[in-house]
Specification:
Length: about 150
């Protein structure tokens, strides 16, 4: 970081704190050459997050896609848009917390299902049937049976 005063290329950090937006760090620096003090902001790099689909194709992670899937699943169900948005937010946070550059669409689907299950049974089954692509009625009814056992 060049000193704005003397353009020397050495400075030491004398203070460092998160900026208000929570996405950058504010650093107070002092030039080792002339002692001039200045402030820099460092942003966290937003690394692109790729979703690996079943066929191996990759596409950029898209929170809106998750939300769209949720809205479809919860159609005519008593689930507010607010709740669906929160699910999408939680899922995105969980995916990003993994810290990976690539996440399988399957993992994302599981995250969504975990969030959706306690909120609305029908929406959950609809989502699961699309996501897991139940191959036959048998697999589908097994899922419903297991939910009944859990007392839903
Ligand atoms: Zn300087």
């Amino acid at each position: 970081m060049l000193c704005p005063h003397c353009h020397h290329n050495g400075s030491r950090v004398i203070d460092s704190r998160p900026a208000e937006d929570g996405m950058s760090i504010r650093r107070r620096r002092e030039c080792v050459n002339c002692g001039f003090r200045f402030t820099t902001f460092e942003r966290y790099e937003e690394t692109p997050l790729l979703v690996v689909k079943k066929d191996g194709a990759r596409e950029e992670f898209n929170r809106q896609k998750i939300l769209n899937g949720l809205v479809r699943s919860a159609e005519k169900r008593p689930v507010s848009m607010d709740k669906l948005t929160k699910i999408a937010d939680h899922v995105e946070a969980r995916v990003r917390r993994l810290g990976e550059n690539e996440v399988s669409s399957q993992a994302i689907g599981e995250f969504v299902m975990n969030e959706l299950k306690p909120i609305d049974e029908i929406a959950y089954i609809r989502f699961a049937s699309v996501y897991r692509q139940f191959k036959d009625v048998d697999a589908f009814s097994k899922e419903i049976e297991s939910m009944k056992k859990e007392g839903h």
